[in-house]
Amino acid sequence: MKQYQHPTIDQITLTGVLHALSDPVRLNFVQCLANLMCEQPCGSIPTPVAKSTMSHHLRVLREAGIVYIRTEGTQSLTSLRLDELSTKFPGLLESVLKAALEESAADPAK
Amino acid sequence: MKQYQHPTIDQITLTGVLHALSDPVRLNFVQCLANLMCEQPCGSIPTPVAKSTMSHHLRVLREAGIVYIRTEGTQSLTSLRLDELSTKFPGLLESVLKAALEESAADPAK
DNA sequence: GTATTTGTTCTATAAACGCCGAACAATGAT
DNA sequence: ATCATTGTTCGGCGTTTATAGAACAAATAC
């Protein structure tokens, strides 16, 4: 397909990260990514939105520095930039993911 | 003046909190609030926006469950709901504030 | 009473956002 | 070459957002 541009660590901003994670669809996707612990094609994670919408969300996550995307064949493999984010903002993504987990556990609906 | 409505702990959502903190003006205000360690009138914290805009931002922070606002005389006193947020999302606000501090330390401009 | 202070609400505007379908691109399979 | 798979990009639509100024409300000071 094509190659993607990713921000370097010092280009990542806190507000950018928070904004990217503040959308339910994106947060849920990041949560799945963290659970699976390995890079995933976009299609392997179920989403409630159209694929063009998901492409937009992945772009936001990528430009915020949260995920790394590479292409292999026809699919684009997405992985969390966990190490780099932990370097830039220690504990941040961890506590967000923990909070997301607890919230979804407390609310069995949806 | 008037009294405000605040969400209960279980009405607070993670995406709501993240969204509220993803705006630079709001995040900066929350940072100041955390540093001062006590409730503050809105006007005591310098902001780059008009007071009507700040009123809007405070409303967002209040409705997200991040701040508590009460009125005394003509001024409205704002305080962080740190304890309640720590109960709902342990470590979250702490790591966001730590990240904000480190980011502003790394970038002496602005 | 009038004036001052502090903040809210209203109205408007411009930008950003989330969403989708259609068209397109690139790879892989038949 | 044709078809299927996997995503991206584009155009558009409706909603939300950040912003500010003007008008308003309430408490305080004079």
Automatic annotation (TrEMBL), chains A, B:
GO molecular-function term, one example from the UniProt record: DNA binding
One Pfam family named in its UniProt record: HTH_5
Name the InterPro entries on file. Answer: ArsR-like_HTH (IPR011991), HTH_ArsR_DNA-bd_dom (IPR001845), HTH_MetalResp_TranReg (IPR051081), WH-like_DNA-bd_sf (IPR036388), WH_DNA-bd_sf (IPR036390)
CDD domains per UniProt = HTH_ARSR
Q: Does the keyword Translocase apply?
A: no
Q: Which residues are the signal sequence here?
A: none
- The answer to whether keyword Metal-binding applies is no
Q: Which residues form the HTH arsR-type domain?
A: 6-100
Q: Which keywords accompany this UniProt record?
A: DNA-binding, Transcription, Transcription regulation
Which PANTHER family has this protein been placed in?
Answer: TRANSCRIPTIONAL REGULATOR, ARSR FAMILY (PTHR33154), TRANSCRIPTIONAL REGULATORY PROTEIN (PTHR33154:SF12)
Stated name of the protein: Helix-turn-helix transcriptional regulator
